[in-house]
Amino acid sequence: MDFRSVSNLKEAYRFLKPARSSMQNGMSFLSNLESDFVEHKAEDFFRLLSEDLQSGYCPTRPNYYFAPKSDSFGLRPMAALALPDAIVYQALLNPRVLGARINSKLESCTFANRLDRHGKTFFTNYTKQHQRFISAQQRAFKAGFIHRLELDVQNYYLSISHQVLEKILEQHFGLKGRGEISFLISLLSKWSEQQVEGLATALDRGLPQGYEASDLLANAYLAPIDEFITSRYKNDVRFFRYNDDMVLMFKSPKLKIRILADITTELLKLGLALNGKSGFRTMESAEEFDRMRYSPYGEDPGCKVEELLEIENRAEAIMRSLIAGNQIDKTESSRLKYYLRVGGIFAKPFTDDAINLLFARPEYSFFASEYLLPCIQDDKVFIKLWGEFIKKHYLLTDW
C-alpha cells in the first residue's frame, strides 16, 4: 500500500488516537484540541496531507518534554511531534506498509511491541506481552535454566544510529530498495536536529520517544542480537527480550562471562553499550518470577503537609530564577520537582509561574504540567496556557 494514500493516513490516525487521548503531559490538552480540529475537517485534512506528501513534504522540528522513567528516579526526553508529522511517521509503519514485514521477521524470543493480529490497535496489549515474557522465563527455570543474566542498553532510543537502522531494515528485514525506508531515515534525521540542551546527540542518531512507530523500529534494531544469541548458543541458553531489556538463562554459571563478552561486542557493532542496571542472580523458585510481573503504577509514598508548606515558601523564587535562565543546585531542584508534582493538590498560588516554567525550561515540563492539571478547567489558566503555546510553539493551523 502507498503510505501516502488517504486511507493509510486515516488508519495511522486511528492507531495514534488512543495514545494521544491518554497523554499525561503539559501538551495533552493541546493534543486534544488538535484532534478535535482534525476530526472536524477530516476529509480536507487527510486529502491535503496526502497531496503534500506527493509534492514534497517538509517535516517540522519536534518540541520536547521530560517524563519520569518507570524504573528509576531519572527522566527521559519525550518528543512532541506536530500532529501531521506523527501521522506520517505512523503511516510508514502501518501493518500494510512496513509494519507487518518487520513484525513477521522478529524472533519468537521478542515479546514487546508486537503487532495486534486483529488490527484493532497497533500493538498487542503490552501488559499481556510482559506477562508472556515472565511466563517464558518461568518455564525456562523449570527446565533447569536457573541462572539469570539481565541486561539493559544505555540511553537506548537516543543511541540508535539512523545509518545502522537503515542497513538493518534493508538487509535483515528484506526491505532494500523500498522508497519508504529512505523517506523514514530523512524524517528521523530532521527530528534529531533539535535536541534538549545537555542531551544533544549527533544528527544521525535517535528515535523520537513516545510513539509506537519508534517502539517498532527500536524492536527491529536489536534483531541482529536476537539472531546472534539464538544461533550461537542454541541449546545452552534461553534468551528473552522485552524491547531493550534482555534476559539470558542458562544451566551453568560458567557461561556468564562468555555471554556477557559476546553481547557487549555485538552491541558495540550497533553503536550501543550496556548500562549499570545489568545484573546476575541464581533463581531459587518459580514464584520469584511472579514479583517481576508488570505493574503500571508504582506505590505512592505519600507526603507530609508540613514538608509541602516549607517548599512552597521558596517555590516562587526558585521558579522565577529558573525562568530567568539561572541554574540552581540539585537540592533546590529536587525539592521544587517534588512540590510541583504533589503540591498542586493542596494549593494553586503559582499557576502563572508554572506556565512560564513549562515553556522556558523543558526539563521541568513534566512537573509543571502535573502542578497545572488540577486547575486546567480554570478559564484564566487555560487562556494563559494557550497564549504561551501560540507564541512559542508550532500550531496545526499554521500547517
How does this structure look, described?
With 399 residues, this protein is of the alpha+beta class. Helix content is 52%, strand content 9%. It contains 17 helices and 6 strands. The protein has helices at residues 6-21, 28-40, 42-55, 83-93, 95-105, 126-142, 156-159, 162-171, 179-191, 212-221, 223-233, 255-269, 305-323, 330-342, 351-360, 365-372, 379-392, and strands at 63-68, 75-80, 147-152, 237-242, 245-250, 279-282. The strands form 2 sheets. The protein has a 4-stranded antiparallel sheet with strand order 4-5-3-6, with helices on both faces. Strands 1-2 form a two-stranded antiparallel ribbon. A hairpin with a 2-residue loop joins strand 4 (237-242) and strand 5 (245-250). Helix 1 crosses helix 4 (83-93) and helix 15 (351-360) runs antiparallel to helix 16. The longest helix has 19 residues, at 305-323. The chain is globular, with a radius of gyration of 23 Å. It starts with 5 loop residues before the first helix and ends in a 7-residue tail after the last helix.
